[in-house]
């Protein structure tokens, strides 16, 4: 779903999915799978780095913040190719490990993309501010779409559960777990997709 299709999401589009331009730029950035990595950091948990030397199971890494550290090779985690930056479903990452998950969530959060799938789950990072992703236009854009046909959002999860209930008479429960904000708020947002008139 490119920029043209994202127009139906209105003002919410940049809060839900990378633009075509950003996707193209990510595909042209280079990555050296042998040296580009993540290493642990006291301040930021994990940082990007580049392996500059290897010696007997230990590697020396120059980090993106200018430090040089020597760690066990087993403590180094490979970076994913740039095309996976801000990926919508982290289950699709080539290298799925804690630093890659944290980096992806951090990058999406920095762009105010607060919803991210992780396999079957929808992860939400509380923005602590109002974003234009809960209006009637967004509800309408998600209605009737399969999860794979739209960016991650609680409305997608809600509508898919609702459609499944209508077609199979089976209830799939929603479990709103929304760190930092009341669960009823998340539940009310997810139920708003059912309350809006279906066309």
Automatic annotation (TrEMBL):
The Myosin N-terminal SH3-like domain is annotated at 32-81
Myosin motor domain segment(s)? 85-199
Gene Ontology cellular-component terms listed = cytoplasm; membrane; myosin complex
Write one Gene Ontology MF term: actin filament binding
Entries under InterPro entries matching the protein: Kinesin_motor_dom_sf, Myosin_head_motor_dom-like, Myosin_S1_N, P-loop_NTPase, SH3_Myosin
Keyword rRNA-binding annotated: no
Q: Which UniProt keywords apply?
A: Actin-binding, ATP-binding, Calmodulin-binding, Coiled coil, Motor protein, Myosin, Nucleotide-binding
Query: Is the keyword ATP-binding in the record?
Result: yes
Q: Which family does it belong to?
A: Belongs to the TRAFAC class myosin-kinesin ATPase superfamily. Myosin family.
> What protein does this entry describe?
Uncharacterized protein
Organism for this UniProt entry: Chelonoidis abingdonii (Abingdon island giant tortoise)
């Amino acid at each position: 779903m490119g920029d043209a299709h994202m127009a139906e999401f209105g003002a919410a589009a940049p809060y839900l999915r990378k633009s075509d331009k950003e996707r193209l730029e990510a595909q042209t950035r280079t990555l050296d799978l042998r040296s580009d990595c993540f290493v642990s950091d006291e301040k930021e948990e994990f940082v990007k780095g580049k392996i500059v030397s290897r010696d007997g199971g230990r590697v020396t890494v120059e980090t993106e913040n200018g430090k040089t550290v020597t760690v066990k090779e087993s403590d180094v985690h490979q970076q994913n190719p740039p095309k996976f930056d801000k990926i919508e479903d982290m289950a699709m990452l080539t290298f799925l490990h804690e630093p890659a998950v944290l980096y992806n969530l951090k990058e999406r959060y920095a762009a105010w993309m607060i919803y991210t799938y992780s396999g079957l789950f929808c992860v939400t990072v509380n923005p602590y501010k109002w974003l234009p992703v809960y209006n009637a236009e967004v509800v309408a854009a998600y209605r009737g779409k399969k999860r794979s046909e739209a960016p991650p959002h609680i409305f997608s999860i809600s509508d898919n559960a609702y459609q499944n209930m209508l077609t199979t008479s089976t209830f799939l429960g929603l479990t709103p777990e929304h760190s930092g904000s009341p669960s009823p708020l998340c539940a009310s947002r997810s139920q708003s997709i059912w309350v809006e008139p279906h066309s």
